[in-house]
Design goal:
The complex is a heterodimer of chains A (594) and B (263). Chain A has 594 residues and is an all-alpha fold. Chain A has helices at 28-33, 38-68, 78-114, 122-141, 172-200, 213-244, 268-301, 309-322, 340-350, 352-366, 375-398, 400-406, 410-440, 446-473, 491-523, 585-588; strands at residues 255-256, 259-260. Helices cover 60% and strands 1% of the residues of chain A. In chain A, strand 1 and strand 2 (259-260) form a beta hairpin. The longest helix of chain A is centred in the N-terminal third of the chain and has 37 residues, at 78-114. Chain B is α+β, with helices and mostly antiparallel strands. Chain B has helices spanning 2-20, 33-63, 79-108, 245-253, 258-261; strands spanning 115-122, 125-130, 164-167, 171-174, 179-185, 190-193, 200-203, 209-213, 219-225, 238-243. A five-stranded mixed sheet of chain B has the order 3-2-1-5-8, with no helix packed on it. A five-stranded mixed sheet of chain B has the order 4-10-9-6-7. In chain B, a hairpin with a 2-residue loop joins strand 1 (115-122) and strand 2. The chains are: A mainly alpha (594), B alpha+beta (263).
Chain lengths: 594, 263
């Protein structure tokens, strides 16, 4: 064991981290609004993402009302329905999940977990949030323009997205594309910050292989996002030019409603390649931070070191790299050259191997642990169930020929909601319950948390597990109403109604969560600095919530990896990373190599 | 205790639902039963893994739940175990991928005796074109599309003169004869989708895509559009009638040819 990368007995690098100059706030506005403190920016990101997420939640209710009880709600006509699904999808994937994991958790946790005073470019970091907020406002504005928001589906495939058979063709699509460009610009400012901070601002002793997996997940996801988002950016700009200036990047010769249009020579499928070259890494941009965070939740609440830390790190990096060569598995039936299917099916199924390793290691961390079923741990367990379920159905859709009958059916909808909707959201909730005490100094209420967990977990599972079978039956996705068919039995309507009722209940449970966030701010139990008895640096700050600059006079010095739980011979069942003594077990036993 | 029990119930409940579900794939009507077989293999492998993972988790939650005086075991890694698990996973993945790629090879290899037919999508209507006695479809050009020539056939092309054009009516196909379906769209993306055939493919304006299948069962099957194509997406319907060779021939003889229609 002496060769372990986290070998706690090794030397501490002598390099000093230079003190950074912090732009200290003067007064209320620069403390809470135009703040350059990453912690405040993180909370601003998180609150904005949760707010826009509420819009997406309401949209999902409206969709489910239509699907569960067709012809009952006459205001949901096909146009409105397609606008709801489009906005729901885009908000959830980009404006909620991406923003909350990277902008929210990333900003709050990276400097704290690495023992840094702040992000390295605080002003650019602040700008990142304000551009994100602007992107959100532009997106919301599309609800109020003539014609309403775009109804092109969140994938925005041309030619349909910019032709008149699709709702929101006049203003909606333009605002959507502009908002995406703004989002990407804002994200790039933040993303460069996270990368440079991880590489340059770690405190003494915090080697890369001692970083908590949360940081590894967010760091890798950020690098991926910086490489993937430009593809969406150029796709959006080109589509905008096609729409506004009449260029033909994606527009071939076509006849719309009997009318010859002036487009010609473009390729609709080029957009799909650009979109999914972003879109597939995007799945892992959301998943990798979730992997990282859930690893830390499991380790802390099972009071056991994360099992196979180095494998976990390499799995994150390998998944990140592989995710750039699997994008066309979203396009098996797009009409691209069918021989691509062999390549993309193989790469896609290979990615299952490092992903499975991560699952095994979470399970093996629970095994022989000392499991405290606190609310964050419950959400971590819920994550494993939903992620494994959604990951396994990915093996259906990734295996090119199996995808042929299932693509564009409700099976796909069920799959991606399980794997990149429910599972990451479980981690977001778990993370909020876990770190809320650090942000506010108070615990979230436990009873409300448990009710919230059980309703959300069991409800979401009851929504999306049966939905796969509708897809297997052949019910297509993105249908306002299935209408008369010979192959869909009447009982499918009952299942749809059931799913809708559960969806309403699960949505309502989120109100309890929001109430808990507010209520506990004043009435929550005081948490103290380290309520979970965790090892990582953010729990070792001199103040809780941490002040500007995080560490008081002196930066912490790191002596060990992030997972020294239940070290034999240690007086407590955890040893913080900045604690020099006692030496870890294998050093005490004289097995040290160095 | 309760948590472990609920996890067990999630695993058992999922399997029970799978076994008792009245919602299953529609009876197949094409040669692609290979696809159904691959799905079945995948269900078995993934089902076993899912149940094993959830039950193991439930066991851990029950067996290693926190009790006074308990301490976790300190064990940063276990190379042998990790290598074992990696190899087992790789084998499981290969067991799904290999048949998948094998069947995909069939899927992309069109038999030489397949008959070409053409399906054209537009908002929100299906059109079909069958070759006449020459067995060839005539050339088309999107620029030539007009009310009189809705599919844009090139008038001078001899191969197109005997083509049968069907608009707003059912497609008929003879049983047991492989067809290569050439797909075209004149406005936005569409996708010709008949659940009973299993095969489907997007239709792209500006390009011709294809897939092939052999109808194996007579009957009338619903055609749906499987690629979002605007606000009429869900009502873009048609039907395919699979008939015996004689019935099909009788139907075909009653159809008008392009040269007759455009005169």
């Amino acid at each position: 064991m002496g060769e372990l990368a986290h070998g706690a007995g090794g030397q501490i690098p002598a390099a000093e981290v230079p003190e950074m100059e912090l732009p200290h706030p003067h007064g209320w506005w620069s403390t809470y609004v135009f703040s350059q403190d990453a912690k405040v920016i993180g909370i601003q990101y998180a609150l904005t993402a949760l707010a826009i997420g509420m819009v997406a939640l309401v949209l999902s209710w409206l969709m489910r009302l239509q699907l569960g009880f067709p012809d009952t709600f006459t205001f949901i006509d096909p146009q409105a329905y397609y606008q709801f699904i489009t906005m729901h999808g885009m908000i959830m994937v980009v404006y909620l999940l991406t923003a909350l994991f990277l902008g929210g958790f990333g900003n709050y946790l990276i400097p704290l977990m690495l023992g840094a005073r702040d992000m390295v470019f605080p002003f650019v970091n602040m700008l990142s949030f304000w551009v994100y907020l602007l992107a959100v406002l532009v997106l919301v504005a599309s609800f109020f323009v003539p014609g309403g928001p775009t109804g092109a589906g969140w994938t925005l495939y041309p030619p349909q997205a910019i032709l008149s058979g699709t709702p929101g063709r006049d203003w909606g699509i333009v605002l959507m594309l502009l908002s995406l460009c703004l989002f990407i610009a804002g994200f790039t400012m933040g993303g460069l910050n996270y990368v440079v901070t991880v590489l340059q601002a770690r405190t003494r002793g915090m080697t890369l292989m001692r970083m908590p997996l949360t940081v590894w997940g967010i760091f890798t996801a950020t690098v991926m996002a910086l490489l993937a988002f430009p593809a969406l950016f150029v796709g959006a700009v080109m589509l905008l030019l096609d729409r506004l200036l009449g260029t033909s990047f994606f527009m071939p010769t076509l006849v719309e409603m009997g009318q010859q249009l002036r487009y010609g020579g473009g390729s609709p499928i080029l957009f799909q390649h650009l979109f999914w070259f972003f879109g597939h890494p995007e799945v892992y941009i959301v998943a990798l931070p979730a992997f990282g965070i859930v690893s830390d939740l499991i380790s802390t609440h099972a009071r056991r070191n994360i099992f196979g830390y180095r494998m976990m790190v390499w799995a994150i990096v390998i998944i990140g790299a592989l995710s750039f060569v699997v994008w066309a598995h979203h396009m098996y039936v797009s009409g691209m050259h069918p021989w691509f299917g062999f390549f993309f099916a193989t790469t896609t199924l290979i990615i299952a191997i490092p992903t499975a390793i991560k699952v095994y290691n979470w399970l093996l961390t629970l095994w022989r642990g000392n499991i405290h079923l606190n609310v964050p741990m419950l959400f971590a367990l819920g994550f494993i169930v939903t992620f494994v379920n959604g990951g396994l159905t990915g093996l259906f859709l990734g295996n090119v020929v199996v995808d042929v009958p299932l693509s564009d059916t409700m099976f796909v909808v069920a799959h991606f909601h399980m794997v990149m909707g429910v599972a990451p959201v479980m981690v977001i909730f778990g993370g909020i319950y876990h770190w809320y005490p650090k942000m506010t100094g108070r615990m979230l209420d436990d009873t409300m948390g448990k009710i919230h967990f059980w309703v959300t977990f069991l409800g979401a599972y009851a929504i999306f597990f049966p939905m796969h079978y509708l897809g297997l039956l052949g019910v297509p996705r993105r249908y306002h109403t299935i209408g008369e068919t010979s192959f869909v039995p009447a009982s499918a309507a009952d299942l749809n109604a059931f799913i809708s009722v559960v969806a309403l209940v699960v949505g309502a449970a989120q109100m309890l969560f929001l109430f808990n966030l507010l209520w506990s701010l004043r009435h929550g139990r005081e948490s103290g600095p380290n309520p979970w008895r965790a090892t990582t640096l953010e729990w070792q700050t001199p103040e809780t919530p941490p002040g500007h600059g995080n560490w008081g006079k002196e930066l912490p010095v790191v002596h060990r990896w992030a997972y020294d739980y239940a070290v034999p011979g240690a007086p407590e069942d955890f040893v913080p990373q900045n604690e020099a003594l006692p030496p870890p077990a294998h050093v005490a036993k004289g097995e040290a190599t160095a | 205790m309760a948590v472990a029990l609920i996890l067990v119930l999630v695993a058992v409940g999922s399997v029970t639902f799978h076994l008792l579900s009245p919602w299953w794939w529609t009876p197949i009507a094409s040669n692609w039963s290979y696809i159904d077989a691959t799905i079945t293999v995948t269900f078995w492998i993934t089902g076993v893994v899912f149940v094993a993972v959830v039950l193991f988790m439930a066991y851990c939650v029950f067996r290693f739940r926190s009790r006074p005086g308990q301490r976790a075991t300190y064990e940063p890694e276990n190379k042998r175990l990790e290598i074992w698990l990696t190899v087992a996973t790789a084998l499981g993945v290969a067991a799904m991928l290999a048949p998948g790629l094998f069947v995909w090879h069939r899927f992309v290899t069109v038999p030489t005796d397949a008959t070409d037919i053409e399906i054209v999508g537009q908002q929100w209507l299906w059109s079909y074109r069958l070759p006449g006695e020459d067995g060839k479809l005539g050339a088309v050009e999107t620029r030539l599309i007009s009310p009189e020539n809705p599919l844009g056939l090139v008038p001078g092309d001899a191969a197109g003169r005997d083509d049968v054009i069907i608009q707003g009516d059912d497609l008929h196909l003879p049983i047991g004869r492989p067809v290569r379906v050439l797909l075209r769209s004149i406005d936005v993306l569409h996708d010709f989708y008949v659940p009973e055939f299993r095969a489907k493919m997007d239709m792209i304006p500006g390009a011709v895509t294809y897939f092939w299948f052999t109808p194996t069962r007579t009957g009338t099957f619903d055609v749906l559009c499987a690629e979002l194509c605007g606000s009429g997406h869900a009502v873009m319907r048609s039907r395919v009638v699979v008939q015996s060779t004689e019935d099909y021939q009788a139907w075909l003889d009653g159809q008008r040819r392009f040269a007759q229609a455009s005169r």
